[in-house]
């Protein structure tokens, strides 16, 4: 917009005494000023952020940079640590038709830590977490509205599974299994709303059963069988 056109619009609005007009004049003046400084950090006529925005920390390092349209983030946003602006610690990729963003978290050195989707501030869907090399998968989990829901898997650096868990509304629910680094099953448990419930089996590093029994409301109940070298040698009957 040329200066003459801006002057005519501002003059017209100043004759109009409404608060809205005064606000628009302010925003226009602010837009003119920022336009002269490189067309960043601007507002549109509705007072919403538009175009390229870039903010800094008090030490002048970049805090974030990205583009807005009618107050909504679009495209790629980069967020930095106050320590360094060499590599973003968070990269969010926004879409125009919803409020879901694909997110990647990095170390200050630029090594990928995790990736997944967010809706607002809530994690949703599948999230992946990586070993310190930024490539080898370490954890795979699922979210619903920011809460763990569904399967959870963790892995050794070798790629073999460490744990297999199930969550419901943020609590352990259903079958869980834990493995040694050689792939041997160590325990096979069941949960209900975060508490041990039902049959449980515990194994040694060689995969032989050590003991087994049932839980009820996180407490051992009924008969518990104990094994030595795979052979049953004792039964402990608990009071109910």
TrEMBL record:
**What's the protein name?**
Antitoxin component YwqK of the YwqJK toxin-antitoxin module
């Amino acid at each position: 917009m040329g200066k003459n056109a801006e002057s005519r619009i501002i003059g017209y609005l100043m004759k109009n005494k409404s608060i809205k007009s005064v606000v628009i004049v302010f925003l226009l003046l602010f837009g003119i000023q920022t336009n002269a400084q490189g067309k960043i950090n601007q507002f549109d006529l509705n007072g919403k952020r538009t175009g390229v925005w870039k903010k800094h920390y008090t030490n002048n390092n970049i805090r974030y940079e990205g583009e807005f349209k009618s107050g909504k983030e679009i495209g790629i946003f980069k967020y930095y640590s106050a320590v360094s602006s060499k590599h973003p610690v968070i990269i969010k990729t926004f879409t125009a038709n919803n409020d879901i963003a694909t997110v990647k978290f990095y170390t200050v050195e630029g090594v990928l830590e995790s990736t997944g989707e967010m809706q607002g501030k809530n994690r949703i869907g599948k999230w992946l977490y990586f070993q310190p090399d930024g490539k080898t998968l370490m954890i795979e989990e699922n979210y619903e509205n920011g809460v763990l829901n569904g399967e959870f898997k963790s892995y050794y650096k070798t790629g073999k599974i460490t744990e297999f868990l199930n969550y419901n509304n943020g609590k352990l629910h259903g079958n869980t299994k834990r493995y040694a680094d050689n792939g041997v099953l160590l325990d096979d448990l069941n949960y209900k709303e975060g508490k041990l419930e039902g049959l449980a089996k515990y194994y040694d590093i060689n995969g032989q059963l050590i003991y087994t029994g049932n839980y009820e409301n996180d407490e051992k109940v009924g008969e518990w069988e104990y094994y030595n070298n795979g052979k049953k040698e004792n039964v402990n009957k608990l009071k109910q």
